[in-house]
Amino acid sequence: MFSLRRQHPSFAHGIHPPEAKDDTKDLPIKQFPFAPVMIVPLQQHIGKPALAVVREGQEVERGQLIAAPDGFVSVAMHAPASGVIQRIGLAPAINGKMGPAIYIKPFAGSSQEVAEGTPCDLDAASADEILLAIQGAGIVGLGGAAFPTHVKLKVPEDRTIDTLVINGVECEPYLTTDHRVMVEQPQDIFTGIRYLLKVTGAPRAIIGVEANKAEVAAALRDAVPADLPVSVAVVAVKYPQGAEKMLIRALLGREVPSGGLPSDVDVVTVNVATTAEIGRLLPHGRGIQERVITIGGPAIRKKGNYRIPIGTPLRFALEYAGMEENLSRVFLGGPMMGQALPSLDIPITKGTSGFTAFTTAQTSAPGEYPCIHCAYCVDACPLFLNPSQLGLLAKSGQYERMADEFHLLDCFECGSCSYVCPAHIPLVQRFRAAKTVVRKRRAAAS
Amino acid sequence: MSQPPRTLEIHSSPHIASGASVDVIMRNVVWALLPVAAFAVYSFGLAALFTLAVAVLSCVATEQVLCRLAAAPSTVRDWSVTITGLLYGLTLPPALPLWMVACGGIIGVAMGKCLFGGLGYNAFNPALVGRAFLQAAFPAAMTSWTPAFADGRFSSLPASTFTFPFAAPEYDVISGATPLALMKFEQQLTASGELLLGLTNGSAGETCAALILAGGVYLAARRMLNWRIPVAILGTVALLAWGFNLADPLHYPPAGFMLLSGGLMLGAVFMATDMVASPITHAGCVVYGVLIGVLVTVIRLWGGMPEGVMYAILLANAVSPHIDGLIQPRVFGTAGGK
Ligand code: SF4
Ligand code: SF4
Predict the structure, then answer these.
(1) Chain B closest CA to A372's CA: distance in Å?
(2) A270-284 pLDDT, tens per residue?
(3) Strands A205-210, A51-52: pairing kind
(4) What is the pTM of this model?
(5) Does residue A435 sit in helix, strand or coil?
(6) For A322-362, where are the alpha helices, taking DSSP H only?
(7) Does A404 touch chain B (CB under 8 A)?
(8) CA of B284 to the centre of ligand 2 (A)
């Protein structure tokens, strides 16, 4: 639809779910207390699990390295609290499986001072040294993808990056962590950008912010240091504006090729909270041992933005934040892409941008109708896929055709199609299942 | 501190929805059709009222019974079969014997919808399937028109209405030739103003173009109808008619007449736009609309029948999946993009 919303740049298609950010966007980030036991999974990122470098019974300092990266696509882990390693064993993960984790029991009376490491000097360090420092700091995409940031920053030899895009869009309803980080940590963001510009060789950076945070964008713009080639761009409020491909389209008018990466159009994108962490940690040689999350949704009593230790069990976090009686569903992240939790025994990890809890009032499941070909999904899909056709093929199990003819693997499960579907067809759920099958088959075949 | 519940719902994302629902869309189409139906009753009296009532009842009952027989949950409450019934009733000559009305309704829903698997799977617009059946089985009755605005239309029914099954219907007056038949067989034109306001003879709901358009605008504004389809159909018909009329005004009627007469408005706005039986992409919808426009013009100007909207739409319904096969959205980041 070509409407008056065109005043800010954007991408085509997409949807306008309720933003639901008013409850938490003005609440300052608060420190979250330590749980009696922390569970730090060795795999909180896409790639190989880290290797534990501590033993059971060992005392550790908050911020101390407890697991080292195993290979390039892997990152380090740091102790979320000063305490003792209780055990190294299996812990439940979000995917329902068990994975290796380090259990830490924080010391009760400790001052919880954070350990300092070897600083990464911006001026002295080479690009590769900065990459190593980022990997060593355990940094992954904090927007939710949890992809190791140093891998993303490794630009292919044959490409020249002309723009570093800092993603401060945060289009998921309910989440306000990036919002708060932009308000409270502008200097960390700028320091982070300095490191990132050096690593990528990009001559400039653009911070993309959604129009519902226009005052944040204005404050950031005013605070940009004179010597830093950074601009702040306001983009239209539309979901999924925060998706990498959509943001690059909005800011630069470029389309990342199907199956390709931003570097194919000479861009690298980094989430704004990730950028702030780089700027906060690298000068002190520290690692990520906590992160900012939003705890929100109608079923939460003490909604807010918290700096929470990685490894805090969800049950502890929920009990601290307080729940309404009729809580019925909890999911990590926001309601569009957040994964519903099978249990509360899993810990907060680096990729957890928040969690949202719904009561029974928000979670009625209307009955499913057959697809009526209304094309709402086609008009919503930001990647111009045909979810209606994909849905019909999924129903009849034609997964290969979905992938070969209808670009199934391009779908990034943004949920726009399911959101608008008047027949209430769980399109995304079917696509996710189909993708899993196709990927497995392809992996087996190769 | 409260305790978390023991059971949590596991549900795939997204966890929120727009609130759009099939039954809401369908109900709105019914709303949009009601003024058209009301006008039909106003201009043709009790005959139209009975025709519409029997049309809707026969369609709804057929779906209900077939769902029962298939031991499937009833789908009547999604309102789609009500639309079918209304649309079907609106395309019929108002004085059609009621048993024929019921026959067509049953056939339309049974063969045009349920046989394909119900809503979402019907390749053709079921209302038109019912009408096509009647046209083939009872060609004479289907072209016997009663005059609009007859005196006493609210107090008495035409004799033909209650004809016994398989007896030849008797007509009181057969002078109600439609504007299209007048044009085709007697080279006589009806003024566009009369057509727009529905002051002419014709099928129950085909006569008042203004109300049909208003319903269409309402649905298009609520995104419950793809405006590209009627615009493409009407644009194509207008353009072709204008061209032919310019070349040979004696043989070819002017564009305004072509647009406003017969079932074109009702067909373009309410029947060709059946979501299930039309293409899914906007480009596909334009192609589909142009195709219908060309077919309508060709059948009307050179075919043996005065009206061609029904066959044009049914043909385009059949082609629609192939249009979808050829025209798919251009996937983001593939050729054609920047
Ligand atoms: S979930 Fe996939 S198919 Fe659906 S709108 Fe998003 S990208 Fe398109
Ligand atoms: S939105 Fe739902 S009903 Fe409409 S075309 Fe897409 S899948 Fe079918």
Answers:
(1) 5
(2) 999 999 999 999 999
(3) unpaired
(4) 0.91
(5) helix
(6) none
(7) no
(8) 16
